[in-house]
Amino acid sequence: MTDTAQSYQVTITMDAGTVNALLAGKFRLYAFHAVQTTQGGGAPTLWISQDYGMTTLVVWKEQYQAYVYSTSNNGVVIITTSFATNIAPGQVMNITQNGGTVVDGGPPSAISICNQTSTEWTCGISVYAGSVATPVCALPLFGNFEDQIIPIPKVLLLFSSVPAQAGTVLTQVDGSPGIFIDFNGVTERDVTFDINNGWSWGNAAWATEIAPDTPLTPLLIE
Q: 6, 7, 95, 172: most buried, per Cβ within 10 A?
């Protein structure tokens, strides 16, 4: 895939007291990416898990992979992908018993995954952060069905002490309040976080603070 994808960035500013309190509590910075689909039964997956400091950058590109997956780990679903390939909106990944191929011809804004087998899979899209594409959602893909997924330019950031690796299906996260940020029409946002006062962004319409323990599926899968 030609690397022409737009880069995006969130800058998070915190004071030393907040950073030290988060570190003492063994919190990690988690990020989730929103999608839109008509396929029910899906769930978000943890997209980014990273360290932080007084100034923290969360950087990614709206460049995608489509994947299918078929295994789990002791009841905790961690998407490791059985087959994945680079793809762009307007393209279709056709899944056969021998793998998958990408062709043009899907709806212009959607990434389509077409199951040409009778095997049921989990499928979804991954978004690149650095050189790695990590799943952002997990949807059922039934035999001979097609799922269509539209990436939405919205991300959720939060701090959590719940251990989880990127790619884990998460429908709810205990921990701190989160911030849901809309990137429609822009590529950079600046926010601050305080251990007692939560997130600040000037109360502009492009972000919303999300309470701890909020169900993630209705927020991240439209």
A: 95
